[in-house]
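Contributing new records

If you add data, match the layout below exactly. Sequence lines come first and carry their own label; structure lines follow with theirs. Keep one chain per record. Anything else will be rejected by the validation script.
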Amino acid sequence: MSYNGIKVLVTGADGFIGSHLTEALVRQGADVTALCLYNSFDTHGWLDDVPSSVASSLRRVRGDVRDAAFVRRAVFGHEIVFHLAALIAIPYSYLSPRSFIDTNVLGTLNVLEASRDCGVSRIVQTSTSEVYGSAITLPIDESHPLQGQSPYSASKIGADMMAEAFFRSFGLHVAILRPFNTFGPRQSERAVIGSTIRQMLDPTCPTLKLGALDTVRDFTFVEDTVRAFMAIGSGPDIKFGSPYNAGSGKAVTVGELVDLLRDITGCDKHMEHESSRLRPANSEVMALLADSSKLAADASWKPRVGLREGLAWTVEWWRDRLTYGHVRRETDFMA
């Protein structure tokens, strides 16, 4: 299936992955509506940084997925909905768990109900590898038990179950994508890679402040994650109502990641352990490593960008941002 001329709605289009997905869909010829969270600063998040040729070819609307009436109006007339809008900051979920239920569970319910009522042909629900918790078996396939080790992960489990229920109850064509730790340009310092690179490159940071170094993660470059979204959004053999992992299939400890970034950036700053960056002991996810063979079999997807290559591109983006205060607008990280 080609995206050329297809009417597509992307919720959370103003975010890290959402902005890259929106950009890729526009380049594929899709008729894209980008839903951004309303704010009073007259901004559209990371969509304000996409090339002008992309920005002029998409429709941007502001709103909130918690508003069911608004969501219904936004969904109407679209053939495919990519639902990425969510609260994702795990540390904040410890402080305000109710807000994660309101946005991630009830917001997803609003998208599913609107899609059902408006006859949407396919919905892609964005999950997360965090729903698996600390790995019981490695690598992790989709049959791995779900473990709510943070309010954030519990809210995403709830959203996934709602998506599955709408398929089983109403036959809604909803697919569930579970990206593992995505990284790349536009990612905030909420994530370990962005935080570490910024500290390494920023001359105002005399030391590197880091949390746990022994946790194991499967880091996947954003270009590969976007291709997974597009594959599951158009593949004819996708199994609706069931999840698909999208990860590199390779894992490193955070300590090994820091060493690799030191080599790329040439940073020799002293490293300090900062306890405030640690999760509660029973909440920390110790290891994540994806088995993405199901997505490979059903949608012919596999990652293309290696960890070092993706990190080098991300470092370049951060250098531009710290030097000029913005990225080079025509730089294409989605080639």
